[in-house]
């Protein structure tokens, strides 16, 4: 019912808001719309409310308000939802413990149990009656008429001892009522009692853990399939109900079971998912028993959840590698297309965990670190829980790795679902050796025109820059046939060693001082070779890296005459070759350079 308000007009929009709390204090709400119609001035606007929505709030509360044309908000109406609750507090049973357990040994058999009705809102003429309703036997109602001396104060009662002892190992509901003239009876809240000695709730144990309560250790792998809390025999009675609490990290790392009948084996199953959130952390496990009323928590089990054993974690693999992935080599010549990285499901895998997966290797181009990222904090899906991880590894990426270098498969998993990589667990490494057909670059100078240079001049080719550093005479690129005409075998072509255009030093025996040539390579290489011929004197050949650090030196045999000698360097990062003629003029030549990254 929305009351009349000043200025109300037909068609006004009334937006009604219902904000509730159910019996467990969980917020819930809904809304509705109404419009002013032909109601007479002064009459309210009526709107029916869905009964099902209100029923959800039974035992809770409801706040109702409305907006007029989305501009004016009404005052709030506060309501309690449900049937009326007793207004008088529970009776006090003097000999009962704070956990509502009444031990008959604490009751004087000659007197009985002392009970007090604490309600003080009584007046002379009222009657207070006590009810003692047992699971086995009940006492008759006991009424006390009140006068001016006894009204307005707590009313004492005594319950004969036999109504205590005859309910041993059972329960009793104790409450009282108020009679006042012709008014309806008013009842207090009920105090449920358990009759018997207080339960000795010692610490539980975890079936899959090692050690003994109250201190145990849990290997997470032992609990990957089942996690079972065992309740000790505290003097179990038929119908006892229990609830177990696993108190670990906040949120999904903690869990309390619903109240349930304690099974004969006293074993309560817990979700194994809680283990993953508590790896390497302490957990407290307790239980409560409901026998008439709920007990306080038991003694605590101090459970140390161990870190995940590395030996139990799965190892990533590339199935295209040797032996189906468990070998040590990944030979790109042994398969076509892309490769794939696979990871079998690991212990305690669950949807929502996060994974980081990458391949770490060495770049073929410059020897730097080269990383191929496959997952970066990605969530595990439900299908991956059973099927594991699988990610394509592009051939184009693998081709960029250096032949003979190591390729490491790195996997990290955050079992607690965080996207903070520092909290993730590193899985065992899988390392492969990359094998691929080496890319060999050849320079035989046949695509170059004849060009001779003096000291300080350079010749540029696709693979190198030739610098005449020191000496006299000329050097450069010129034909083999310039050396000598005729049939002298020393100057005849040898396929793959010398033919066509050559790189000459002391071309046509010019100059007197030994020459020095420097070849600045256009890239860095791990292997360089070339053929060398016609030398008559001692020479030195050196190779350097980009930082001008000497990597290797060689002194070719002399004289070579018509023989062709293969000179080879193998080192990481070769970027420069130097030639030095020692002992004066010596016409020599080189051809068929090969460069391997």
Q: If you compute it from the alpha carbons, what radius of gyration comes out, rounded to the nearest whole angstrom?
A: 47 Å
CATH class of the largest domain: Mainly Beta
Overall pLDDT, averaged?
Answer: 91
Distance between the termini: 86 Å
Helix/strand-derived category reads mainly beta
CATH topology (fold) name of the largest domain: Jelly Rolls
Q: What portion of the residues fall into strands of 2 or more residues?
A: 35-45%
Strand runs, count: 45
- Output the number of helix runs: 5
Approximately how much helix is present in the residues?
under 10%
Number of domains: 5
Shape: elongated
Please tell me the CATH architecture of the largest domain by its name. Sandwich
Main sheet: strands, sense, barrel = 11 strands, antiparallel
> Which runs of at least 5 residues are low in confidence (pLDDT < 50)?
none
Outline the structure in words.
It is a single chain. The chain is mainly beta and 597 residues long. The chain folds into five domains: 13-80; 92-195, Immunoglobulin-like, CATH 2.60.40; 205-307, Immunoglobulin-like, CATH 2.60.40; 311-435, Immunoglobulin-like (Sandwich); 442-596, Jelly Rolls (Sandwich), CATH 2.60.120.200. It contains five helices and 45 strands. Strands 35, 36, 37, 38, 39, 40, 41, 42, 43, 44 and 45 form an eleven-stranded antiparallel β-sheet that branches.
């Amino acid at each position: 019912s929305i009351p009349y308000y000043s200025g109300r007009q037909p068609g006004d929009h009334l937006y009604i808001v219902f904000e509730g709390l159910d019996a467990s204090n969980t917020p819930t709400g809904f809304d509705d719309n109404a419009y002013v119609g032909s109601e007479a001035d002064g009459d309210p606007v009526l709107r029916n409310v869905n009964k099902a929505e209100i029923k959800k709030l039974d035992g809770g509360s409801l706040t109702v308000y409305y907006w007029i044309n989305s501009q004016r908000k009404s005052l709030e109406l506060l309501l309690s939802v449900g049937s009326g609750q007793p207004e008088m507090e529970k009776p006090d049973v003097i000999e009962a413990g704070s956990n509502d357990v009444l031990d008959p040994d604490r009751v004087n058999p000659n007197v009985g149990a002392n009970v007090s009705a604490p309600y003080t809102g009584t007046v002379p003429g009222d009657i207070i009656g006590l009810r003692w309703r047992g699971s086995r036997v009940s006492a008759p109602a006991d009424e006390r008429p009140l006068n001016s001396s006894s009204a307005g104060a707590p009313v004492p009662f005594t319950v004969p001892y036999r109504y205590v002892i005859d309910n041993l190992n059972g329960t009793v509901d104790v409450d009282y009522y108020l009679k006042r003239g012709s008014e309806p009876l008013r009842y207090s809240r009920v105090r449920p009692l358990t009759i018997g000695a207080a339960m000795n709730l010692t610490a539980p144990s975890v079936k899959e853990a090692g050690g003994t309560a109250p201190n145990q250790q849990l290997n997470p792998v032992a609990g990957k399939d089942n996690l079972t809390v065992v309740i000790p025999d505290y003097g179990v009675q038929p119908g006892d109900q229990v609830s177990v609490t696993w108190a670990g990290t906040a949120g999904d790392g903690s869990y309390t079971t619903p109240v349930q009948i304690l099974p004969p084996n006293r074993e309560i199953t817990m979700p194994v998912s809680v283990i993953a959130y508590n790896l390497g952390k302490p957990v407290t496990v307790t239980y409560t028993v409901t026998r008439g009323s709920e007990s306080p928590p038991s003694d605590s089990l101090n459970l140390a959840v161990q870190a995940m054993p590395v030996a139990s974690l799965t190892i990533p693999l590339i199935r295209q590698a040797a032996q189906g992935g468990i070998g040590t080599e990944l030979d790109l010549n042994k398969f076509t297309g892309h490769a794939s990285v696979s990871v079998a499901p690991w212990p305690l895998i669950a949807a929502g965990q996060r994974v980081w997966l990458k391949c770490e290797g060495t770049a073929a181009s410059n020897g730097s670190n080269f990383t191929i990222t496959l997952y970066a904090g990605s969530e595990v899906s439900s299908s991956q829980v059973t099927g594991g991880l699988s990610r394509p590894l592009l051939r184009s990426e693998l081709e960029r790795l250096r032949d003979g270098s190591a390729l490491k498969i790195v996997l990290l998993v955050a079992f607690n679902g965080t996207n903070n990589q520092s909290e993730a667990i590193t899985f065992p490494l899988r390392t492969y050796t990359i094998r691929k057909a080496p890319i060999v670059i050849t320079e035989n100078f046949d695509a170059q025109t004849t060009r001779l240079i003096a000291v300080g001049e350079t010749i540029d080719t696709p693979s190198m820059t030739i610098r005449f550093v020191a000496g006299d005479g000329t050097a450069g690129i010129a034909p083999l046939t310039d050396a000598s005409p005729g049939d002298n075998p020393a100057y005849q072509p040898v396929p793959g060693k010398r033919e066509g255009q050559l790189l000459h030093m002391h071309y046509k025996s010019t100059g007197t001082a030994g020459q020095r040539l420097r070849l600045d390579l256009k890239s860095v290489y791990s292997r360089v070779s070339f053929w060398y011929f016609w030398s008559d004197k001692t020479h030195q050949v050196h190779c350097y890296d980009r930082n001008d650090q000497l990597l290797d030196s060689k002194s070719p045999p002399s004289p070579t005459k018509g023989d062709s000698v293969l000179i080879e360097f193998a080192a990481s990062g070769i970027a420069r070759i130097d030639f030095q003629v020692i002992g004066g003029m010596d016409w020599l030549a080189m051809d068929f350079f090969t460069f391997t990254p």
